[in-house]
Write a structure and sequence with these properties.
By secondary structure, the protein is mainly alpha-helical. Helix content is 76%, strand content 1%. It contains 13 helices and two strands, in the order αββαααααααααααα. Helix 2 packs across helix 13, helix 7 runs antiparallel to helix 10 and helix 8 packs antiparallel against helix 9.
Length: 311
Amino acid sequence: MSLRTTSVRRPLAVAVRAAPRVRSRRRGWLGLAYAAPAIIAYGYVVIVPLLQSVNFSFYSWNGVTAARWVGISNYVSFFTDPALVESLWHVLVLIAFFSILPIVFGLISAALLGRGRVRGQGVYRWLLFLPQVLTSVVVAVIWKRIYGPDGPLNAALNAVGLGGLAHNWLGDFDWALPSLGLIGTWTALGFCMVLFVAGVTAIPDELYEQARMDGAGPVAEFFAVTLPGLRGQLAIAMTLTVTGALRAFDLVWITTQGGPGTSTTTPALLLYRKAFLNPDVGMAAAIGIVLAIFCLAIALVVNRLSEERDS
């Protein structure tokens, strides 16, 4: 083979190897061009308002007069203002009802309905999932009527001779927050149940057979096979339900509007009041930013823990 032939073939080989990279770059730019309208729209609708909110959070502004720079005072007030601190404690209570209870009951439902054939289980799933189909406004109106002084709940208690337990549930300082939390439990239970049942059906049967061969009973089988197999679904359920409790607004506003007194106030409710009822746009923006950071932190922590356990 001559030197001239070798020198010609080398550029050809280099060109052949470079061709896939060129095509890959072209496809990447083409994909970016297709996604550009959605990216621009997302930036205009989400990113720009977010940056504006961050900017507003450093000012004291009623939305009309000139804004006054206050630095991080609004963020300091979030953790020192008595009303906001109280609302954070209320959120912790709501997390127990909006997240922990639905997840526990959802796991129980998955254990009962996921592997075996229960007669009428389709009807049970439909009834439990029904709250997810209804809008939060409809759910709030329904339960406000149920909890009313003359509502079905008190009527049922009176009918069975337990009239002494009847309350104005949403108007009682001690019972308003737990009553509100139970609405969240009822709403989130269907979502958790369907999520976990779907996860259980994806677990290989061989794992259950191996557990039975090792002498595991139903309870040991649940903790040894079912629960580890639902780590991904648990991460999703925990992230969505906890952040839902942090962002609780519509359910609270329609049923109690934060009352009686301040017994059911939440940060999202105070954000609404600061932004629209007693305008303090800077404080409202600071509340929104802190809630967004909390939600992001919870999502990152839950996902990180889930990934570490999987690894």
